[in-house]
């Protein structure tokens, strides 16, 4: 198998995995079933990480409930497009990871301390 065929096979496996995960998330509500993983930070400290509520928000998005999904985790609406861009164009400026880390930290502090 040459490099392009193996890359195509890897993308096909990745796409199948994402489609399978989306199907599970569509049919099984994270708010109702208990087989989804729990956030270790929230379990230990009671603080919400930037991803807390992400599975429930993704479930609502898959069902077309955009406002309810945004209310659970607004960060998801910025992280998904950014993740797609990073996947499609992996070369990025040297400052990009630091900017992403700063945005994550700002969202963490805003979510846990500024709103309460």
Defining traits:
single chain, 116 residues, mainly alpha, 6 helices
Short description:
The protein is mainly α. The chain has helices at about 5-25, 40-45, 55-60, 65-70, 75-90, 95-115. The chain is built from six helices and no strands.
Total helices: the number is 6
User: Average pLDDT across residues?
Assistant: 89
Low-confidence stretches: none
Q: How many runs of DSSP E, i.e. beta strands? A: 0
How big a fraction of the residues is strand? under 5%
Multimeric state of these chains?
Answer: single chain
Helix-strand topology string: HHHHHH
The N- to C-terminal Cα distance equals 56 Å
Shape: globular
Helix content bin? 55-70%
Largest sheet: none
User: Which value, in Å, is the CA radius of gyration?
Assistant: 17 Å
By secondary-structure content and strand pairing, the structural class works out as mainly alpha
Task: Describe this structure as you would to a colleague.
There is one protein chain. This protein is mainly alpha-helical and about 120 residues long. Helix content is about 70%, strand content about 0%. The protein contains six helices and no strands. It has helices at about 5-25, 40-45, 55-60, 65-70, 75-90, 95-115. Helix 1 packs across helix 3 and helix 3 runs antiparallel to helix 4 (about 65-70). The longest helix is centred in the N-terminal third of the chain and has 25 residues, at about 5-25. It is globular. The mean pLDDT is about 90.
